[in-house]
Amino acid sequence: MSRNYKFRGQESPYFISFATVHWIDVFVRSEYKDILVESINYCVENKGLVIYGWVIMTSHIHLIIGTKQEPMQNIVRDLKKYTSKAIVQAIRENPRESRREWMLWMFERAGKKNGNNMNFQFWQQNNKPIELSDTKMIDQKLNYLHNNPVEEGIVIESHHYKYSSAIDYADGKGLIDVLLV
Question: Gene3D superfamilies of this UniProt entry (predicted)?
Answer without folding.
Answer: Transposase IS200-like
